[in-house]
Each structure stands twice: as C-alpha cells, then as structure tokens.
Amino acid sequence: MKCRYMSLAALAVALATPGHAAAKSGDVQFKLLATYVAPDGKIKDVKLDLIGLPADAQTKADDNVVPTVAIEYFVTDNISVETIAGVTQHDVVGRGGLAGAGLVSNANIVPATLTLKYHFGTEGGVQPYVGAGPSYFIFIDEKPGATAVALGATRQKMDDTLGVALQAGIDVPVNAKGLAVTLDAKRYFLRPAAHWFAGATEVLRTKHKLDPWVISAGVAFRF
What we know:
It is built from 2 helices and 15 strands. It has helices spanning about 1-15, 145-150; strands at about 30-40, 40-50, 55-60, 65-75, 80-85, 90-95, 100-120, 125-140, 145, 155-160, 160-175, 180-190, 195-200, 200-210, 215-220. The strands form 2 sheets. The chain has an 8-stranded antiparallel barrel. A 4-stranded antiparallel β-sheet has the order 2-14-13-10, with no helix packed on it. Strand 11 (about 160-175) and strand 12 (about 180-190) form a beta hairpin. The radius of gyration is 24 Å and the shape is elongated.
C-alpha cells in the first residue's frame, strides 16, 4: 500500500511539473528563420514627372524568400525586445499603362527592425506573442530596370525610410533545454520615395506604398 501511495505521489509531481522550461527575465533567444517577403510597391504619388507617365501607370515589387536571424532578450518573463538581421532583394515592374516595364533592378533592402513583444501562454506550454516597433529600411545598390535604361535612365535611387512594424507569432517548445519551433508574421508600413536620373538630372520621382508582409518559420534556441 505504501508503494502505491508513493507511486501516485510521483505521478502527481510529474504531471504538475512543466515538461519545458518557460522563458525567464534575462534569457536570450536566437532564431534561425526562412522568411517570405511580399511587398506591395504601388505608386501612391507622383512628385516629379519629366517623361510623361501614362495616366494609369502603376508598379509592383516582386516577392522573395531569404534566410534571416532574430535575437531576442527577455526584459521580464513575459516582455522581450527583438531585432532581426537579413537582406532581401527585389525588382519593381510596371502595371497598368506600364505593364511589363522593368523599372528597378536588384534593390537590396536591410529591414532594420526593433520590436517590443508580449508573450502569452502557460508555464512550459505554447507561447503566442504580439509585438510592435520602429523599422528603418536601408536600400543598397539599386539600379534602373531594363525599360528605364532603354528610356534613358542612368541611375535609380530609393530613399532610406523610417516606418513601423506590427508582429504576431508563436513559439512551440520542443524540449526542456530551450529548443522551440517558431512561426512569425510581421506587417510593415513604409512610404519610400523613388528617384530616376538621366545623367545629373532627376526625371522622375514617385512615392510608394511598400508595406510588405514578412512571414518567417524556423527554430529558436534559448539560453
């Protein structure tokens, strides 16, 4: 009988003890991610037009899948600060009256982002979270597309732009050593300006609704 009570007590303790340790204040979490980047890119305003754009001219940036990393620091058990690192490359092509036109080629973007996150969930269980914070998109080495070059453009420049990111996701623990599977979604809101030049003369300036969806999946390591 005594052995039976001891066995029942051991079972109760096992059931009450979380199988996976939850994040604690001071923890650092490192994430390796595959990230799908889907920008909008449509023209919101034409600031300068010396080439005569069609009245229904419109643009669209293409999508891309890139590797990214995220580093997260837990300020408290439920609140963390996260930054991401990665580079994504995009072309911009025409729509409407510009259908098929290559306007921007190989625009490399560094989406410098810092979000403040709040984590929900139970001790040792699945951890959903939401977050928000500023983002600064840095454009590197962009060039005029084939159509823009054919029309006389010799240089193209996108303005680095400050915006905001909203975030939601979930971390699913795999073991008690801090390994987890992670899913993350961000929506950015940015309005960069684009410039095309013929020699030293700016011939076209437009403002764009970039607003990419950034969807990531991968693994997280907490220590």
